[in-house]
Amino acid sequence: MTALQPARQGPSAKPAASGRIPFPVVDEISRHCVREDEPETVHIEVHLPRQPDPERLRAAFGEALLRHPRILVREAPGRWYRRRYEWELTGTPDVDPVGFREPGAGALERARARALAEAPPLSLSPPVRLEVVGPSSGGSCVLLLTLNHTALDGPACLRVLATAAELYSGAPSSTSPVRGPAGSPQRPGPPPARTGGGGARPARVAPASDVCAEGGNGLLLADLPVPRRPAGAGYTVNDQLLVATCLMIARWNRQHDAPPRPMRITMPIDERPRGAEMPIGNGTRLVEVGFTAQECAREPGPDALAALLHRTAERTRALKSAPRPQLGRAAALLTAPAVPIVMRAALTRGLRRAAAAWTSTTLLSNIGRIPYPLDFAEAGRAEAVWFSAPASMPRGLTVTTASTGGRLHLALRWSRALLDDAAGRRLCDYFTEYLAAMTALRADSGGDGP
After folding, report:
1. If you count Cβ atoms within 10 Å of the first and of the last residue's Cβ in the chain, which end, N or C, has fewer?
2. 6-439 has which CATH code?
């Protein structure tokens, strides 16, 4: 999940006189690597107590798009020898992005399946789809957003939905310009602690014994308590989620006789403000948090778990404070417009295949506490918000979390070429167990161990 970086993109991030914007680095790399069997979609699921009025919701969402014109884009056509992809600002939607689904058994499951399998096309503005599913027998309703990740990311789309909620309810924005949880300003830290992996290939998620040949992604959503921390703990909830993800995969791999290997978890860092001025697009940079083979080799006791949490906190503080391009310097070189785009695309896909074994083990995207009330007046405020990030191979598994009302909303998404539904349920059980174990830690648990 990655982003616009105005300081780095400079003038190229501004619309040209023609109303076109060259693809930023993240968008171009994503565009090169799109695969039909595993679309790059982000799914956002907002649960409301009651159903909003259809016409008011359609009008509010349409006005929100106009207030965030950067979302009203389509890929501009161009000749094969062009040097860049470009976004064309349309000013108004090409299609109505809002649809209402008949309530009934399986309606939500079918909408989720569409969100994982059918990306909104880049050729039509906006590259976003909003499906309203419900009301259920209890009167509740789900707003299900699907976005094409080549064009924008989940936090940017949620900002647009928050504007729609403000317009629907007639309430002024109450959002202070806070920043995302993983991108909060950090005091300069030490260099990242060496994790012992060096240039070694990271661990891969071991395949399940009975995977599906049909392709696509599977999804599991869970509602958990936000993990607590002892008073004065030197680690964050984000650090707890990283450790739970690492131990979840390590346990799964041990049970499938995979040898211990260093693990690397990709983590998006989002430093955009969350107010109405939030830049719309792909707006995060990616870092990789490392874990040694020894840290993944066995089940940790309470003291070892506390020590791992403190080491992880040191690593993430250092990574957050270190300047780095969105996808690293290699991606910036790959997207330099020195040769036609078709040549860069072929090179990018070839390098991706060659480097597959060195791709990080998984991706953890922690959206953090939802900073908007998402208040739809008579339909009520959002009771739960789930996100899920694409899970294409070679990683094949992503973990995405968000929180509202003291609850942690966890989404596990996997490639069906790697895992099946039973594997997803077991991984969720492991993740839940490790969060509970971290919540149970005492303030005096050993945090200075090796």
Report:
1. C
2. 3.30.559.30
